[in-house]
Amino acid sequence: MTQLPSSLPPLAVTMGEPAGIGGDITLAAWSRRRSERLAPFFVLDDPHRLAYLAARLGLEIPLAEIASPAEAAAVFASALPVLPLERRVSAEPGLLDSANAEAVLEAIRRAVALTQAGEAAAVVTNPIHKQVLMEAGFHHPGHTEFLAELTGSERAPVMMLACTLLRVVPVTVHLPLAEVAQRLSPDLIFETGRTTANDLRRLFGIAAPRLAVAGLNPHAGEGGRLGSEDAAVVQPAVERLQAAGIDARGPLSADTMFHAAARRSYDAALCMYHDQALIPIKTLDFDGGVNVTLGLPIVRTSPDHGTALDIAGKGTASPTSLLAALRMASQMAAAAQHTTA
Questions:
Q1: What pLDDT score was predicted for residue 2?
Q2: 289 in a domain, yes or no?
Q3: Do residues 35 and 107 share a domain?
Q4: Distance (Å, rounded) from C-alpha 96 to C-alpha 114?
Q5: Which range of residues forms the domain containing residue 27?
Q6: In what order do the strands lie in the sheet containing 80-84?
Q7: Domain check: are 139 and 253 in the same one?
Q8: pTM for this structure?
Q9: Which of 150, 164, 204, 301 would disulfide-bridge 325, Cβ 3.0–4.6 Å?
Q10: Do 26 and 143 sit in the same domain of this protein?
Q11: Running DSSP on this structure, what letter comes out for residue 86?
Q12: What crossing angle do the helices spanning 320-340 and 22-31 adopt, rounded to 10°?
């Protein structure tokens, strides 16, 4: 059973891109609150938009407008708590409109502020459409960097993808493969590993985290015959992690890191580039992966998928990843409370 301790407030769920599937999966998640035994959450959204969307989807879901997160738990069993945005949102599923960009950002800002104030236990973000936000003046590459700015994080944020079978952390994320080797450095790998280990302790309750560090090249460079980066860049970072008291192994050949027996030997895999991390986790659990931001002073999770404009408003979007993000946020918030208690 996934429940927040009684001393913790509800989770804050953001609207996301209103033309996407965020509303679809939020409504679907609440409708499964009993079968999934979800901890209470509320959504920052326009209740009129959600009511229209529920009717369009043929869902009989009562909505309860709340004035503060403190009201959410009392109504959650019988209605979806909605903390209204200041801006009205007019959106048709699948049709992007930059006029809604500020409402999308308002939902994120307020969710973060409420979590920092202790009124919400964690932030669970629905997918955003970065191009629409950038057209409206948004200057961040995505959620992660925006959240770091909002929280005043002193550490560089780190993206983790997690499911019940695997946790992976890409050291470099959205880069052309040709640029990965020049962007990697011992410092970057070390700081990513240190943040990962710290938050495995703080947010996942793992007392002595074990990190498996993938090599960049096939066979981790094969003694220099397949590239010098593993010996010159990855190995020094692993040694620094070990010197800092972190159980880190590598560089390891990535092609033997992700079978069942290998996964049992570590708590998270540090991967050198995007696909090295995301291919194994999406193969193992395509629908149940969760995007987690490490290095923030708050807990933040998100479904590991995009806005899916092509299926928005059609009732076919799966809430599986959002359900997993809600469960993981609950568990992380509880672990964080226990760690700081």
A1: 43
A2: no
A3: yes
A4: 28
A5: 1-156+297-341
A6: 63-65, 80-84, 41-45, 11-14, 123-124, 300-303, 290-294, 158-162, 167-170, 268-271, 210-214, 247-252
A7: no
A8: 0.94
A9: 301
A10: yes
A11: S
A12: 70
* Total number of domains constituting the chain: 2
Question: What is the per-residue pLDDT for 6?
Answer: 54
For the residues 70-99, what does the mean pLDDT come to? 95
* Angle ∠(37,40,45) on CA atoms, nearest 5: 125
Q: What is the mean pLDDT of residues 93-113?
A: 95
Q: The tokens of 282 are what?
A: 């999406």
Say yes or no to pLDDT of 1 above 60.
no
Decide if 292 is inside a domain. Answer: no
Asked if 137 and 102 touch (Cβ cutoff 8 Å), the reply is no
Average pLDDT, the chain: 94
Instruction: Report the distance separating Cα 284 and Cα 96, nearest Å.
Output: 32
263 vs 193: CA distance, rounded Å? 17
37 with 149, same domain: the answer is yes
Q: What is the mean pLDDT of residues 57-84?
A: 97
Q: What is the CA radius of gyration of the chain?
A: 20
At residue 340, the pLDDT reads 65
Residue carrying structure tokens 């629908």:
287
pLDDT at 7: 76
Question: Do 277 and 309 lie in a common domain?
Answer: no
Sequence letter at residue 34: R
pLDDT at 299 over 80: yes
More confident residue, 214 or 138: 214
Boundary residue ending a domain (252, 284, 316): 284
Place of tokens 């931001």: 293
| Per-residue pLDDT tens digits for 250-282 | 999 999 999 999 999 999 999 999 999 999 999
Burial of 78 (0-12, 13-18, 19+ CB in 10 A): exposed
* Cβ atoms of 136 and 17 closer than 8 Å: no
